[in-house]
Amino acid sequence: MYASPDEILAALERVGYFTDQKTATTVYLAGKLHRPIMLKGPAGAGKTELATSVSRAYGVPILRLQCYQGMNEEKAIGQYDKSLQELYVLLMSKSDRTPDWADIKRQVTSRAYFMAGPLLEAIEQNQRCVLLIDEIDKVDYAFEAMLLELLSVWALSIPRMGTVQATSIPYVFLTSNQERRLGDPLRRRSFYLVVEHPTAEREAAIVAKRTPGKSEKTHRFIAGLAKSLRAYTMEKPPSISEMNDVALAMQLLGIEQIKPEHKDIMLPLIAKTEGDRKRLLMKQAFESIVRIAGRHASEMSPEDETDVDAIIAERAEV
């Protein structure tokens, strides 16, 4: 574990996740106190990426439980391998010895016959891993209640097998897109962190990490474009990863700055719904967004530009 929030902040930047002191401090305290972090914020703001970046920064594996409506405990904890159980029972029943059915029952309900899901696998790791429970707001309150045992005493109760205590306590991240309000018991056990879209300066640094061959002017313009698009009335504002796609596309096409004549090229990258595509095709809409993006880019102060350059130079040396 890193010894301070500053060390975590530097480690996250080294793996390409540019964040702030608040986030780094929350990650530090959660790791020390064995508390999960509940991440909320708009889709594409970097909630999942924070968990994966912590995994890379610590050099530990990440196990992901992708939640969805109707998901049950078997998908999360695991289930018995019925075919293996049946095979064992068949072999024992055909052996020369009189079957000891009580012993057979103990055997087929033991850990050896249980296929672990992400939750059980996470607490059975020899060293701490990152456990990402993604989009937890899609499951019901009954599933939340099941998680309380894990997050309270770091153990899981499995029918017919008993309670499995954690070998190691994972770094747990819960993400939510706020489709429904999560229960208070789960909130009490978690640290709460809101992940917003990055500032233009930070997004310029993120884009520069992905496209180091482009100029700083281009990086600032893409950050300004992201800010302009998210301020527009879009059904699905662009995520950080989508703006990285724009940067990579510009690099492949040899474009230094997006202009109004690039509208047909850029629309498939930034408009992901039919409604947004129609909005951006409206008279002067795309042109206006590009113009405002240039204004945002030029408004970055020299001090901010220096900070971005310093971050990029430091990461390049590493």
Number of helices: 16
Question: How much helix is in the residues?
Answer: 40-55%
String of helices and strands: HHEHEHEHHEHEHEEEHEHHHHHHH
The counted number of beta strands is: 9
Report low-confidence residues grouped into runs of 5 or more. 302-318
Question: What's the arrangement of strands in the largest beta sheet?
Answer: 2-5-8-1-9
% residues in beta strands: 5-15%
**How would a textbook summarize the main sheet?**
5 strands, parallel
The rounded distance between the terminal residues' Cα atoms is 20 Å
The general outline is elongated
Gyration radius, to the nearest Å? Answer: 25 Å
Overall SS class: alpha/beta
Mean pLDDT: 87
Describe the structure.
The chain has 318 residues and is an alpha/beta fold. 54% of the residues lie in helices and 12% in strands. The chain contains 16 helices and nine strands. The chain has helices spanning 5-14, 21-33, 47-58, 73-77, 82-93, 101-108, 118-123, 141-153, 184-188, 200-210, 216-231, 240-253, 263-270, 274-281, 285-299, 302-317; strands at residues 37-40, 62-66, 78-80, 114-116, 130-134, 155-158, 162-165, 171-176, 191-194. The strands form three sheets. A five-stranded parallel beta sheet has the order 2-5-8-1-9. Strands 3-4 form a two-stranded antiparallel ribbon. Strand 6 and strand 7 form a beta hairpin. Helix 1 (5-14) packs across helix 2 and helix 11 packs across helix 15 (285-299). The radius of gyration is 25 Å and the shape is elongated. Residues 302-318 have low confidence and may be disordered.
